[in-house]
Design goal:
About 5% of the residues lie in helices and about 5% in strands. The protein has about 180 residues and is mostly loops. It has a domain at about 1-30. The chain has a two-stranded antiparallel ribbon.
Length: about 180
């Protein structure tokens, strides 16, 4: 068993790749890009002399005097003046307060209407005619004997009563059937 080299393992753990070459082993890793930033270069241009343009004299042509036309203002004729009518309003008279007049009508007697009695007429007795229903006569038929086992009426009932064969769809309904034990 060969001894394990701890340096090789540590280099491989931090990202080095192992390359075997004749005579030994190279461990290579990728290095980050190197950015070279040169110092700033400042260029000072030569100072120029101030530029003075030649003097320019502008003489506009002479303008003839402006004479506006005569303005004649004729206002519209005024409407005839009609003064408002004069109303003479005398001072209001003092209020007249006559003495209070108390009128007390005589107290009427209480009204007691006579009692109203309503007598209802007795209706005539209604006697409907007799209704006779005659069933049609069927020919006599011989029915086959029917055998019903006694245990068919013994069912469990959620209402608590022993049985109710009167209404098998609703065993909670009541009926006057006496159950057999």
């Amino acid at each position: 068993m060969t001894p394990k080299n701890m340096v090789v393992d540590r280099l491989q753990q931090i990202g080095f790749q192992k390359f075997r070459v004749p005579g030994g082993t190279f461990f290579i890793t990728s290095s980050p890009d190197i950015i070279l930033q040169p110092a700033p270069i400042v260029v000072y241009p030569a100072q120029q002399s101030p530029i003075t343009p030649p003097q320019i004299t502008v003489q506009p042509p002479s303008i003839a005097p402006i004479t506006p036309p005569a303005i004649v203002v004729r206002p519209p004729p005024l409407a005839p003046i009609t003064p408002p009518p004069v109303l003479a309003r005398p001072k209001p008279l003092a209020p007249i307060n006559p003495p209070a007049i108390m009128v007390r009508p005589p107290k009427p007697a209480p009204i007691c209407p006579p009692p109203i009695t309503i007598t209802q007429q007795k209706p005539c007795p209604i006697t409907p005619p007799e209704i006779i229903i005659r069933q049609p006569k069927y020919p006599t038929m011989q029915m086959p004997p029917i055998h019903i086992p006694a245990g068919i009426f013994r069912r469990t009932n959620p209402c608590g009563s022993p049985c109710n064969p009167c209404n098998p769809c609703n065993p909670c309904a009541t009926c006057s059937y006496s159950c057999q034990s």
